[in-house]
Write a structure and sequence with these properties.
Elements (H helix, E strand, L loop, with lengths): L5 H6 L7 E4 L3 E5 L7 E7 L14 H17 L6 E4 L15 E5 L9
Antiparallel strand pairs: 1-2, 2-3, 3-5, 4-5
This protein binds adenosine monophosphate and zinc ion (ZN).
């Protein structure tokens, strides 16, 4: 855990959030500024900033984030259309330096994204 990291603190329940899923490796919570009717952030408990900081040992963990997204999308009846997004780096819009997968659903989405 990085003691200065917002999402590490949410995972450790030192900062409140609407947690919707957790296990020993990952946790998920409602985004504070939702961009769709469902907007959930899915995080590894392990602190790393972006996808390119992960290594071969993190392969299963990265896969788990996607599977948690699929489980939540199924539970919330989002299967007609949902999106999973990882913003890596400020140029892609990353504002919190702890890897997180956005799960967005409940509305239609355009392509390409902005
Ligand atoms: P990104 O811009 O990809 O780094 O995504 C960061 C997301 O974290 C944004 O969608 C924010 O709305 C969200 N966020 C920031 N602070 C909090 C918080 N305390 N609780 C829940 N979501 C947050
Ligand atoms: Zn962190």
């Amino acid at each position: 855990m990085d003691p200065n990291c917002l999402f590490c603190k949410i995972g450790a329940k030192q900062i409140p959030a609407k947690l919707v899923y957790e296990d020993e490796a990952a946790f998920a919570f409602e985004d504070i500024n939702p961009q769709a009717p469902t907007h959930i952030l899915i995080c590894p408990r392990k602190h790393f900033v972006a996808l390119h900081d992960a290594g071969p040992d993190d392969q299963a963990l990265l896969g788990e984030l996607q599977l948690v997204a699929a489980k939540l999308a199924t539970e919330r009846n989002l299967l007609p259309g949902y999106r999973t997004v990882i913003n890596n780096g400020s140029g892609a819009g990353q504002s919190v330096s702890h890897l997180h997968l956005h799960l967005l659903g409940g509305r239609n989405f355009r392509w390409p994204p902005g």
